[in-house]
UniProtKB/TrEMBL annotation:
<dbReference type="InterPro" id="IPR023465">
    <property type="entry name" value="Riboflavin_kinase_dom_sf"/>
</dbReference>
<keyword id="KW-0418">Kinase</keyword>
<comment type="pathway">
    <text>Cofactor biosynthesis; FMN biosynthesis; FMN from riboflavin (ATP route): step 1/1.</text>
</comment>
<protein>
    <recommendedName>
        <fullName>Riboflavin biosynthesis protein</fullName>
        <ecNumber>2.7.1.26</ecNumber>
        <ecNumber>2.7.7.2</ecNumber>
    </recommendedName>
</protein>
<dbReference type="GO" id="GO:0003919">
    <property type="term" value="F:FMN adenylyltransferase activity"/>
</dbReference>
<dbReference type="GO" id="GO:0006747">
    <property type="term" value="P:FAD biosynthetic process"/>
</dbReference>
<dbReference type="InterPro" id="IPR014729">
    <property type="entry name" value="Rossmann-like_a/b/a_fold"/>
</dbReference>
<keyword id="KW-0808">Transferase</keyword>
<dbReference type="GO" id="GO:0009231">
    <property type="term" value="P:riboflavin biosynthetic process"/>
</dbReference>
<dbReference type="Pfam" id="PF01687">
    <property type="entry name" value="Flavokinase"/>
</dbReference>
<keyword id="KW-0285">Flavoprotein</keyword>
<comment type="similarity">
    <text>Belongs to the ribF family.</text>
</comment>
<keyword id="KW-0547">Nucleotide-binding</keyword>
<dbReference type="InterPro" id="IPR002606">
    <property type="entry name" value="Riboflavin_kinase_bac"/>
</dbReference>
<dbReference type="GO" id="GO:0009398">
    <property type="term" value="P:FMN biosynthetic process"/>
</dbReference>
<dbReference type="Pfam" id="PF06574">
    <property type="entry name" value="FAD_syn"/>
</dbReference>
<keyword id="KW-0067">ATP-binding</keyword>
Length: 307
């Protein structure tokens, strides 16, 4: 695990001397991000120096488009995933309004002081600084004045297009969890706290853990999915319904329900993790509760056989 530093007034910028940095937000730490991180790691190995990833404590989009944003992971999970990516150090910049308003040159001067690293790696089209005015060319011009090799890498393309967090969010919103997992390099996951439901699941003979998932992490479209659910470190197969149950839309508030196979515990108040594996069907309103039960039972059987 890499050591994580907050880049504030107290941070010792000498640490950047000679280092090779990958720079960006990295929501999802997807395969494109992993390719860029590998460039910084390989460069550092050649130079015999340290590899860094330079990122922000808060995703800038949370400040600029808070209502539309559907994130792939929390900021905390993103920083932990970067720390586990193979780099030596994670340097976390405080994304305050003041910092966000720095023009590109001042942004770089504040970040590095007199300690420009040996190299910076970004993807083509990378933007930074106030109003996203800084481009990879701005960065390269600053690099040539500060003896820092800047490389804007071709974006990794998979399945016909560049991999990006935006593309993965789009796939999840359509329920395409398998394709999203191929671009992420792992299934998409989300955590939520188990809250009480209306008790109708138990009456129907199908108990469900009702979850509260923060709105900005509900990247996935409504529908029924096959998933794994991790409870206190143990993994269970599950059939999951995302979205307000259409049949009971007037009476329910929960936005996600999971039926865990072969599980009979009381987990109210627990934080559990859902790992989405396959799309099963759209959610729909049923006129008859027996039909709803039959549909859910067949989803559960599918999960039992295929996961
Ligand atoms: C795998 C699965 C699929 C579901 N599909 C639907 C659906 O298509 N339409 C619907 O109205 N509710 C659906 N539900 C939600 C049930 O209606 C819900 O579990 C029931 O209302 C119990 O709610 P409660 O836990 O709040 O008591 C589904 C639930 C599960 C676990
Ligand atoms: N497919 C890719 N291949 C290589 N580098 C990439 C790729 N996607 C992003 N990068 C680079 O990784 C760093 C972090 O990128 P950023 O967080 O902007 O990712 P993104 O996936 O493009 O996000 P978004 O879709 O929200 O713009 C940046 O330097 C960016 O240019």
């Amino acid at each position: 695990m890499a050591e994580i530093f907050n880049v504030d007034e107290s941070f010792d910028r000498n640490r950047f001397d000679g280092a090779c940095c990958a720079f960006g937000v990295f929501d999802g730490v997807h395969k494109g991000h992993q390719a860029l991180l590998s460039c910084a790691i390989e460069d550092a190995a050649k130079r015999g120096s340290a590899s860094f990833v330079l990122t922000f404590d808060t995703d800038p989009d949370e400040m600029f488009r808070p209502n539309e944003l559907k994130k792939l992971m929390t900021n905390g999970d993103r920083i932990q995933a970067l720390a586990a990516s193979g780099v030596d150090f994670v340097a976390v910049l405080p994304f305050t309004r003041e910092f966000a308003s720095l023009p590109p040159e001042q942004f770089l001067a504040w970040t590095f002081g007199e300690h420009a690293p040996a190299s910076i790696h970004v993807g083509c089209g990378f933007r930074f600084g106030a109003r996203a005015k800084g481009t990879d060319e701005t960065l390269a011009a600053w690099g040539s004045r500060n003896m820092c090799d800047v490389t804007a890498h071709e974006l990794l393309c998979l399945e016909g297009a560049p991999v990006s967090a935006t593309r993965i969010r789009g796939l999840l919103s359509e329920g395409a969890v398998e394709e999203a997992a191929r671009l992420l390099g792992k299934p998409w996951k989300v955590r939520g706290t188990v809250v009480s439901g209306r008790g109708e699941g138990a009456q129907m003979g199908i108990r469900t853990a009702n979850l509260r998932i923060p709105d900005n992490l509900r990247s996935i479209g409504d529908g029924v999915y096959a998933a794994y659910v991790i409870v206190d470190g143990k993994r269970y197969k599950a059939a999951v319904n995302m979205g307000v149950a259409a049949t009971f839309a007037d009476r329910t508030t929960s936005n996600c329900e999971a039926h865990l196979l072969d599980f009979d515990g009381d987990i109210y108040g627990h934080e559990i993790e859902l790992e989405f594996i396959a799309w099963l069907r759209p959610m729909r309103a049923f006129d008859d509760v027996d039909e709803l039960i039959a549909a859910i039972m067949s989803n559960i059987e599918w999960v039992r056989e295929h996961l």
